[in-house]
Design brief:
This protein is of the alpha/beta class. The protein has 2 domains: about 240 residues, P-loop containing nucleotide triphosphate hydrolases (Rossmann fold), CATH 3.40.50.300; about 200 residues, Class I glutamine amidotransferase (GATase) domain (Rossmann fold, 3-Layer(aba) Sandwich), CATH 3.40.50. It has 14 helices and 24 strands. The strands form 5 sheets. The protein has a 7-stranded parallel β-sheet, with helices on both faces. Strands 11-10-12-13-23-22 form a 6-stranded mixed β-sheet. The protein has a 5-stranded antiparallel β-sheet with strand order 21-20-17-18-24. A hairpin with a 2-residue loop joins strand 14 and strand 15. Helix 1 runs parallel beside helix 2 and helix 1 packs across helix 8.
Length: about 475
Amino acid sequence: MYLPPRVVIAALGSGAGKTTIATGLMAAFTAKGLKVAGAKVGPDFIDPSYHSLAISKPGCNLDPFISGPQFIAQLAKNASKDSDLLIIEGAMGLFDGTELLRDRDDLNADFAIGQIPMSSTAHVASLTKSPVILVVDARSMSSTIAPLVNGVSKWNAEINVAGIILNQVGSDAHESSLRNALLPLGIRVIGAIKRDPEMTLKDRHLGLVPVIENPSEIKEKISKIKNAIIGSVNLLELEAIAKSSAPLKVPSAPIQEPQRLGKVNIGYASGKAFSFNYPENLEMLAKAGAELIPFDPMRDESLPENLSGLIFGGGFPEVYASELGENKPLKRAVKSLAMGGIPIWAECGGLLYLSKRLDDVEMVGVINCRSNFANKLKLGYRRVRLLQDCPIGTKDTVVLGHEFHYSITNPGGQDTSSFGRSGMFLTGFATPRLFASFLHLHIGTTPHIAEQFVKSAKAYLDNVE
């Protein structure tokens, strides 16, 4: 099977408007009657939710570091099944990636001219043989746009910058100046979008506001963006660029699936405070035998019945701390099951919820630490070694993931060793019945993690029966 026509929406850096334009393009092509698929480069929970709202189906994440570069084309194929067009939204700048290696605790510091960094937008464009549409934030810029675009477009011969969309254009005269400056490069300017507050998506400290918090308002905003895209971008030209994608036949061998270990009921936190759940994680758990049952720690006063495991993903518990703290019946129910030995997998926001306090609000108290919102962002890829047996793996198992948070815990965990750009450090809380850390896992290509959690849930079920 071949990948369908496709483009990567990239930029010179963060904040250029990639999500706005990629989502608007998805909505515009869908309105034209095309079957559109969406994907996001790198680890991201929020942007794919905007894509999903535009195309009415889930998107996917394409992350070579976490999932493995050998699986990126397969993941893209799975996401774009029966689609006419695949639109891949990039992350940060076109060549922004990681120096961290998948298989060693060191850094690849020898950055050479023309190199494509691991897990960059350029890396995914190369792995999927996709032409690139470069979104350029043109505020406070005119002729300087030409050397910037020229340098990026010629950095690596594998990367085909096939078109430009000018964003935040101030006027018709500004647009004309930008187009004239770019003319000698021979790269087509396929759209110019004027500065307009109606094109701005709301954000907060970790990026855009998740769709689940206000879907009707965001849907209306996407409709306005779609109309602006239709009026400002040559969709026929963009579609032609997508159809110029080099043929890429994806191997028929599927990504390994987990062994089905028997049915267990797994409750997972959802709602406005816990919206960070990769669909691929839930799919892998279901294939291993999990019956996945959502519950909302803000609204539900009781847990689903007959649970054998609990999952608390990430989200924004710091934004909804008061509501979470006020739901005392649910907190008691969680703590009771935890004290009874139910296996728990908690990521970032889940760790905050299970701590004793989040800022000045009392939380569940399963983990003997306090959590606080800090003013320093911690982010990046991590290679994490488990120093204890826990529900997602045995001692010395290595898992790959990412962190993206401001919050801290005191004391910090000592049960995993985590390697990132800043070196090695101890973090995370792990026991045979608990894994809780700031690490986010994407297990779409690592079925053993799903198997291990279901196995832990089965052991708990056998014990209580």
